[in-house]
Amino acid sequence: MPRFPAGFELAEALTVAARQLHDTVTPHNTMRTAVRLAVHILPGAEHAGISVIERPQHRRTVAWTDEVVRSAEAGYGSGSGSGGDEHAHPGREQTPYWEHLWTAPVVRLEDSEADDGGLLLAEQGLRSALSLRLRAERRRLTVLTAYSRKPRAFDEAATRIGRLFTAHVSLALDSATVREQLTEAMRTRDLIGQATGILMERMDMDAAEAFDSLVKASQRENVKLRDLARRIVDANNAT
């Protein structure tokens, strides 16, 4: 996908991006589309990734444009800002730069070779980063980060465009999540209905008795109702 021409209106570019985001079916596809679009829309962006951040200092990458992003963020996954080796860079602050996202919606890393908290990026040749929150929960953040191999690649204009873009990504991600949940709810309802029907036939019960029996078995075995229903349906289909 080519970059937008210099004269291409930002509003039109975001409209095109929003259309592509909302055409996605699942949250995973939404995030994969978002990182691909990010490198074309955000000025200065060469790579992008979406990650989930959980306390304390744990980061898991869920979508990425290329392996350099996964490698750069993998070191943060162990719960240590220095990738698990607290002596790797003596005398330097090891708190990762993205920890500031707990209190701010946007964090810019100007130069990973000079700024504390970005040493792992410098090791991968990534000099600057622009991190923007997509979702914020009490103990979990979903974050989109754009990266560049040049220092100070992201200015105020890039930050403003990034916030506009992530607003569209957040809406599309919420929409895809709701669709996925509704689809799963319908599948679960059908599955429980099938299991109830099987119990009615086998145990000579009415619908209420069969469902009550299913619920009690779920509680007794400490198994989710959906999983128990699937087990009954699978066993019935195997016979």
TrEMBL record:
Keywords: Kinase, Transcription, Transcription regulation, Transferase
ANTAR domain span: 172-233
Superkingdom of source: Bacteria
InterPro entries given in the database record: ANTAR, CheY-like_superfamily, GAF, GAF-like_dom_sf, GAF_ANTAR, WH-like_DNA-bd_sf
SUPFAM superfamilies: CheY-like (SSF52172), GAF domain-like (SSF55781)
Keyword Cell membrane: no
Keyword Transcription regulation: yes
Disordered as annotated region, ranges: 73-92
One Pfam family linked to the record: GAF_2
Sequence intervals crossing the membrane: none
Protein name in UniProt: ANTAR domain-containing protein
Organismal lineage: Bacteria, Bacillati, Actinomycetota, Actinomycetes, Kitasatosporales
